[in-house]
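> call design_seq(struct)
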């Protein structure tokens, strides 16, 4: 299937687009026929498409297979579902981030948009808003993040410009990004972000006391076929730990939990 239908903000939009695509091919194609092809009751499909009921991961995976989605688009479709119906807040948040990254791969961003979504400082500013009673000002945020005032001032302006932050109220409010440009772009933003995190990790090793950080590595052998299993387990651990920590009172600083699993090799191959 063409990925054009996948450039949708919700899974319901995708279902509508897929139904319209089929109807364009066959003008007599009905919602009842669509429900039949998806092995659903017509009234149930109508409720799903109108937002009255949600979709489970299992049913979403069945639909993705019937739509013939390639792996990348299948995961995007499932993340659209998880972004709304995942059981935990952290799983929803992670799904929304993956959706945003997928859409970045499908469009060309302006320099301002690209720099905003791939800059750790922008994400840190938004995350600071989760700290209760924090003073929402450039000076306060600069002090918390150890950044010059002019950098935070520029970051706030970029977030506002890209509709990710509202500073019109006494307390700033984080908003969803609203990216509307089109055409292709690589996953450079994701790579750039990871490079930034590695740079911040290096800074922490050199500057932070061992009591205020945790770094550990283990070298081991495994089958390359187990990579997906390992990634799934790492994600489960990350979600569980972050969910537990975020639920605890007394938030006062922004941290990064970064995990790497890769084949160990030298520079010559």
């Amino acid at each position: 299937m063409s990925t054009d239908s996948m450039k949708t903000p919700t899974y319901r939009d995708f279902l509508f687009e897929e139904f319209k695509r089929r109807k364009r091919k066959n003008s007599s194609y009905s919602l009842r026929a669509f429900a039949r092809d998806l092995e659903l009751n017509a009234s149930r499909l109508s409720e799903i498409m109108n937002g009255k009921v949600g979709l489970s991961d299992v049913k979403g995976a069945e639909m993705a297979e019937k739509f013939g989605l390639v792996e990348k688009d299948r995961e995007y479709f499932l993340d659209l579902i998880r972004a709304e119906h995942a059981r935990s807040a952290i799983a929803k948040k992670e799904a929304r981030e993956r959706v945003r990254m997928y859409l970045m791969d499908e469009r060309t961003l302006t320099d301002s948009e690209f720099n905003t979504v791939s800059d750790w400082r922008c994400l840190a500013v938004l995350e600071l808003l989760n700290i209760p009673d924090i003073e929402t000002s450039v000076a306060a945020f600069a002090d918390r993040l150890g950044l010059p005032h002019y950098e935070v001032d520029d970051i706030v302006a970029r977030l506002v410009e890209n509709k990710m932050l509202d500073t019109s109220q006494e307390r700033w409010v984080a908003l969803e990004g609203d990216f509307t440009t089109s055409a292709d772009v690589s996953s450079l933003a994701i790579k750039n972000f990871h490079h930034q995190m590695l740079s911040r990790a290096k800074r922490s090793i050199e500057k932070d006391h061992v009591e205020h950080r945790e770094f550990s590595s283990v070298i081991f052998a495994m089958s390359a076929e187990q990579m997906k299993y390992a990634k799934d387990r790492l994600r489960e651990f990350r979600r569980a730990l972050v969910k537990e920590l975020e639920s605890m009172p007394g938030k006062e600083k922004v941290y990064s939990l970064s995990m790497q699993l890769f084949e160990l090799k030298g520079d010559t191959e």
